[in-house]
């Protein structure tokens, strides 16, 4: 008599890498001065520089990258 065939396990799901929340500013070139915030409740993404006070905000979709 033969062995029972075992079911093949499904491959593990790949995790998505988290995006950076602190970036360098494209206006003043100061490193790690831009802070990104994503408000999933209001569907708004915002990036603001703490040095030169530049800011950018945009509406976001379900799967979105950093707004900068």
From TrEMBL:
One of its GO terms (molecular function) is zinc ion binding. It comes from the Eukaryota. GO terms for biological process: transcription elongation by RNA polymerase II. It is found in: Nucleus. Gene3D superfamilies: 2.20.25.190. One of its GO terms (cellular component) is transcription elongation factor complex. The keyword Transcription applies. It holds the Pfam family Zn_ribbon_Elf1. Transcription elongation factor implicated in the maintenance of proper chromatin structure in actively transcribed regions. This is Transcription elongation factor 1 homolog. It comes from Linum trigynum. The lineage of its organism: Eukaryota, Viridiplantae, Streptophyta, Embryophyta, Tracheophyta.
